[in-house]
Specification:
By secondary structure, the protein is an alpha+beta fold. The protein has a single domain, classed as 2-Layer Sandwich (Alpha-Beta Plaits), CATH 3.30.70. Helix content is about 40%, strand content about 25%. It has a five-stranded antiparallel beta sheet with strand order 4-1-3-2-5. A hairpin with a 6-residue loop joins strand 2 and strand 3. The chain is globular, with a radius of gyration of 16 Å. The two termini are about 25 Å apart.
Amino acid sequence: MSAGDVTTLELVGWDWFVSCSVAARGASDVFLKRKAFALLRCIARYQHVHFHQLPWALRLESGVDPDHRHFHFFVGSLTHKSQGERFRVIHTWDRLLGGTPDRVRGTCRVRLYDAAGGLAAYLVKELNGSEVRGWVSGQVVVSHAAVRCAFRNRGMVAARRCA
């Protein structure tokens, strides 16, 4: 990801930083990608937004230990950001994996995005930390809605909110 991409993504009004993992040994990239998009679609439905209007940036981790397959994503322009909504997303992730209370099949953390450090700090600290150690590699995939939101907000430094 280039510096220009990071600068563009800084203009999106991100609300959540989400990390999800699966306990299934040897889960494929295709499996993770399908589950990631299923979770993003559920978030869009909970927010009463069409999926194509939801800004998100997804990073699927490749080359990791088969016992710890995971991905991260940012999601923005949310109208409902309460703790209850975050727990709802965590429960949805467990349901998508077919988990039961006595058998957990994965974990999900939904954290509020702290804009004070900026997106670059998140990318370096949260996403690229293990890459520096040579453990994983990955690629950030960005929705068209996030790019549209960034270009709409490029003149509004104080607001940083996509309508």
